Structures are given as structure tokens and as C-alpha cells.
Amino acid sequence: LNPRDPATGTRPNPNFLRITQYETEGHAWYSALLMSLDKRAAARTPGFGISYTLAKTIRDVEGFLFLAQDQLNPAAEKSLATKDPRHQFVGRYTWMMPWDLQLAGLLQYRSGQPWNVTTGRDNNLDTEQNDRPDLAVPGGNPLDRATYFADFTNRVGNLGRNYNTGPSFISLDARLSKFVTVNRFRIEAFVEAFNLTNKVNFGTPVGNLRSATFGTSTGIQGNQRQVELGFRLDF
Fold it and tell me: What is the DSSP string of 120-184?
């Protein structure tokens, strides 16, 4: 409520610095195409399901306690949402084989999520370090600091929010079961694996230009390969 004027350096109420009022206000736009194909399993015949989503999510706010880099221009925050996987694919199958064996699996894929680049300093002197840099090299390597310019004061950069896209995600889960029926009891012994191929899915890169790890992914999405053995008794 008391933004600093970048031209004069003064605030409407000079007796205070930042005065923040949080409101449940913002806009989101979502459009999507959803497709699916399913085939039910029959005796000795595999069943499967495939679904695909093509979507786009645009927002001008992002999460709780969100602050625009320029309080005098909140419209500049309109961009792809942080959670905006453009393509999502899920495939599943179930196959009841001879000797009461069952094979099942789940394949998941989604394209990369947007990530934001910030200067790591308070360029416009509004007491918030959420300013974005200028785009110095259009079409340049998004993981290279030289693509951006952040050495300026009394203004914010022209780079849009969530300008870049991070790594995609893919994972395959599988399960093999053996069924045994004894009187009224049905016993299932199984082995299942999550992320069967042990694919390393990197998270979104660090976007702070002043960080020593800028442009690198310091976390992963999902889990490493996990294998479990178990049994189930139905009665």
C-alpha cells in the first residue's frame, strides 16, 4: 500500500517503508484437451488404459504471500503458472497370465515445469529481493548467467516471470503377482518396483543469479527405485 516511486525514490507515506496488505485476489486461465482410451482385461487378454492431457495454465499470482516485483505494475506478473506441465501421459496395463500370474504396470510422463529467474538483489529498492533481470541474449542458454543482465538500480528487469522450462519427468512402475486359492481364502504374493528403470528425474534449476548453484538442479522429482515384496490374504 506504500510503494516506492522509482523516479523520485519517495513513498506516499514517508513515515513508513513497506506496508503490505494481503488479499485473496488474482486471476488464473486454464485450457486443456483431455483424451483417453481404455480396454478392459479379459481371460488371458491384457487390459490397458492410456490418457493424455494437453494443457496450459496462466496466472498473475502464484501461491500464498505472493508479491509482484513491481507493485505499480502487477499485470507484468501474468505468465505461465509454476505448475504448468504442458504434456501429461499416463499408460497402465494389467495382464492375467497362465499359472495365476498377473503382470501390471504404470508409465507416467509429464513435460517440464516453468522456473523463474531473479537477480538475487533488491534492484528497485522496494525492500523485496524478487526482482527479475533483463534478457540480454534472446534465445540464449537459460542456464548461463550471461543470458541475463542484472546490474541496474531503481527499476525491475524486462524478463517475464517463469520464463524458462525445467526438465521433464518419466517413471515406470511394475508389479508381478502370484495368486493361490485355498478353500475360502485367496492369497496373493507379489513383488513390485517403483521407478523400475531407476531414472533420475531432476527438479527445476535454481533461478537466483547470485547463487553458486544457479542453473543446476539441486533436487529430484519422485523417488529412486524402490522394490517391495509382500502378500495379501483375502477371506
Answer: SS-TT-SS------EESSTT--TT-GGGEE----SS--SPPTT-EE---EEEEEEEEEEEEEETT
Express each pLDDT in 158-184 by its tens digit.
999 999 999 999 999 999 999 999 888
| Residue 196 per-residue DSSP state | T
The CA distance from 217 to 150, in Å, is 22
Kindly report whether the global pTM for this prediction surpasses the value 0.90.
no
Cα separation of 163 and 153, whole Å? 21
Spatial distance between the Cα atoms of 66 and 93, rounded to a whole number of angstroms:
42
Number of other residues whose CB lies within 10 A of the CB of residue 7: 8
**What single DSSP character describes residue 4?**
P
For residues 28-48, b (16+ Cβ closer than 10 Å) or e, as one string? eeeeeeeeeeeeeeeeeeeee
pLDDT at 140 over 80: yes
Torsion of CA 96, 100, 101, 105, to 10 degrees: 40
The C-alpha atoms of residue 88 and residue 125 are separated, in whole angstroms, by 40
Q: Which residue has the cell 523463474?
A: 116
Amino acid at 180: V
